[in-house]
Every structure is written in structure tokens, then in C-alpha cells.
Amino acid sequence: MKTEILSNLDNPQQLEKLYRDNKSAFRQAFNALYPQLNDTRLAEFWHQRLNFDRDEVFSINRSELIFVLVAALIAGTCAKLPQILSIDEEFFYTRNLGFLVFPFLSAYFIRKNNLTAKTIAIIAGLMGMGLVYINLLPDNPKSDTLVLSCIHLGVFLWATTGFAFTGGNARDLKQRLGYLRYNGDLVVMSTLLLISGGILTAITIGLFNLIGYDIREYYFQYIVIFGLPAVPLVGTVLTQNIPELVQKVSPIIARIFSPLVLIMLLAYLGAIVFSGKDPYNDREFLIIFNALLVGVMALIFFSVAERAKATSNRFEIMVLFLLSVVTILVNGIALSAIVFRISEWGITPNRMAVLGANVLMLIHLMFIASKLVKVLTRDASLTQVGKSISAYLPIYWGWTAVVTFLFPLLFGFE
Predict the structure, then answer these.
(1) Residues 333, 278 contacting (CB under 8 angstroms)
(2) Which residue ranges does UniProt annotate as crossing the membrane (predicted)?
């Protein structure tokens, strides 16, 4: 590196390229050479650039802190409604868990983006419709359509929050991709907050136990129940105001886990052949198979969202392409198993919901894989892959709306 720097001192563009190719090596080599170069203006410029010691001031607006505190208190109070109003906990939490998180995240982005009254009314109307509808469904814990509605309502609320995130401009593909990136960052930040909160909880309970006080019930009833709904909101405020906290961690996670998941998937598919298990006759195995599929799809989305904002090498693109191809294979197996089960035992709400989701994911995966091929052949950029992911998201939102609101009616609440 030292030789390359010395030979390109009169070529600013080449120096910039060397720096971007390997910033840490460039900085180390240049600082070693600097005593020999301090009589040149270009060397002084690079020295100041590489060694500028900026003060990192991490601050959050006071009004945002007040907003987080008020929202956390409201969310915690809502979480305690079963105790306050003597509501059955299973009835309340299975139907309303999403409403302890997403309305408050939406409120944050409504405030942050200064949305119009019309946009606020749309978001509030969609969430209000979901709140009323899910709580009016018949109380039948054995109802498949009830379970499906509760699960898909969470995705519906997540997508509606995305509408608030984009500032009401749902057609902006770049903003949609930014929403996926935000979700990846939020998962990282929320995990760190939960780990920290868990350590604090263990220490607090342990210390009080040492002096003869058992505060576990009180702590979980009044501290944890208020703290858990606040975690996504606090994580959101941190990622939006101090992006430096996770902007380097998330891409690293994407780079590490993509090849690892690819290896795991290949090993898993190979193990299926010798295990004697198959998703055609084993319902629980099919459920796990589909959960795996959704998880890998989420990783692909997250990885593309993170790489779309930075330069990626061909190896990383190839890993993403192979991961999408293997996921298409997994999806094909799951889809054929669902079709087999429908042909053998007929249509049920669960089978129809999974069939629709798998068909949508298969089409999307094939679309993503074709775009990644173009990236590998340099006929497209990774940003275009990100846009292809973003453009498809409303279709998922539409399907979750169908399952949430229409399936109970179509299948007679069974």
C-alpha cells in the first residue's frame, strides 16, 4: 500500500480509489508515510481527512423523549387492561398484541414526517378497522380463521406502519426499501435493549433477594409490562436519531448470516432425504418448513436492503443468488406439499392461506433471482433488485388483508 500511495501522490482520483478499496490499510500506510510528505498540500489534506477527531455528540430531542415516555405509559397501560377491566388474558393478547406496538410506531413517524390530516386519517382508519374487527370475531379458540386473522393482522399493521414511515408516499420505492432497512436495524437495536433489560432485571431481582425482598411479581407486573411495549419505540428513536449505533452492525450481520444460512439450508435439504420426514404427510413438519421459508425470505430482503446502499462484491451477490435459488427449491417443495394435502383432504382455511402466501413468495423469489442474475452479468445494479423487492410489498399487504378480514367470512368463522 505504501508504494501505491507514493506512486499516486500526483493523482487525487487514484488516491481516492485506493482509500475506498481499503480504508483501514490506506490510513495506516499513509500515517506511516506522512512524516516524509508533510511539505505537500495534498499530503496535508489527506492527513487532516484521515485523522480528523470529531466529537460524537449523541443527542435526542427533548420533545421526542417526552413523546417516548408518554407513549410507553399509554402502551403499558393498554397492556394491563386485562387486569384493570377483568378481561380474559388469552382473548385480549392474542387479538390485540400488535396494537401495543404498531400504533405507537405509526404515531412516531406521523409526528416525525409531519403528515397531513388526510394521511393520518387513512392510517388511523386502517388500524381502527383492524382493532374493531378482530375484537368482534366470535370467541372460539379452536377457530382456524381466528388464528389466521390474528397472525395476519400483525403483518397488516406492520405494513400500515410502513405507510407512515414513507410519509404517506407509498409509491416511493426507495422509501419502501428504507423501511425494510429500518426493520433490520430495529431488530438489532431491540435485541440489544432486550438483552440489557434482561441483565438489569436479573441483577435487580437478585439484589433485592439478598436483603430479603422478593420483588419478582411486582417487577414483572409494573416494570416489565411497561418496558416491553416501549422497546420497539425506544429502538426506533435510537435508530432514527443515532444511526451510527447500528449502521455498521447491520451490514456485517447480513454478510455473516447470508452464507451461513445458505450452508444450513443445503445441509437441511440433504438431511431431509435421510430423515424419513416429509412435508406431504407430516403437518407439523410442513409448518416448520414454511416458517423456515419465511425466515429466509426475510433475510434475503434484509440483506438486499443493507447492500443496496453500499458497494457489494461479486461473492456477496453470488451468495444472495444461490440463497434465492435454494429458497425457491424449498418453496417449491412446500407448495407441492400444500397442493398434495388439498387434493387429498380438501380445502381448509389454513391450507388456502399457506397456498396463497407460498405462490406469492415463489413468484417474488423468481423475480429476485432473475434480477440477481442481471447484477452478476453487470446488466443491472443491486439497487434495482431492492426496487423489485419494494415494488412487490403491496401484494403481500393485500393478501394479509384478505386473510385477516375475508377468510373468517368466507369460511364461516370455522
Answers:
(1) no
(2) 65-85, 91-110, 117-134, 146-165, 186-213, 219-240, 252-273, 285-305, 317-340, 352-370, 391-411
User: pTM of the entire structure?
Assistant: 0.80
252 in a structural domain: yes
Say if 278 falls within a structural domain: yes
| Residue 410 neighbours by CB distance under 10 Å | 13
Other C-beta atoms within 10 Å of 106: how many?
Answer: 23
Give 390's contacts (C-beta < 8 A, 6+ positions apart). 173, 174, 176, 177, 180
pLDDT in tens, 182-195: 888 898 889 989 99
Spatial distance between the Cα atoms of 251 and 185, rounded to a whole number of angstroms: 9
pLDDT by residue (tens digit) across 97-117? Answer: 999 999 999 999 999 888 999
Residue 183 and residue 144 share a domain: yes
Return the higher-pLDDT residue of 362 and 21.
Answer: 362
Do the beta carbons of residue 289 and residue 278 sit within 8 Å?
no
DSSP state of 127: H
pLDDT at 136: 93
| Euclidean distance between CA atoms 326 and 334, whole angstroms | 12
**Amino acid at residue number 220:** F
In a domain, 261, yes or no: yes
Q: Are residues 293 and 206 in the same domain?
A: no
Domain that holds residue 137: 62-238
pLDDT, tens digit (0-9, with 9 covering 90-100), for 389-410: 888 889 999 999 999 999 999 8
Helix, strand, coil shares, percent, the chain, to 5:
80, 0, 20
The answer to whether the beta carbons of residues 104 and 229 sit under 8 Å apart is: yes
Strands (E) located in 119-170: none
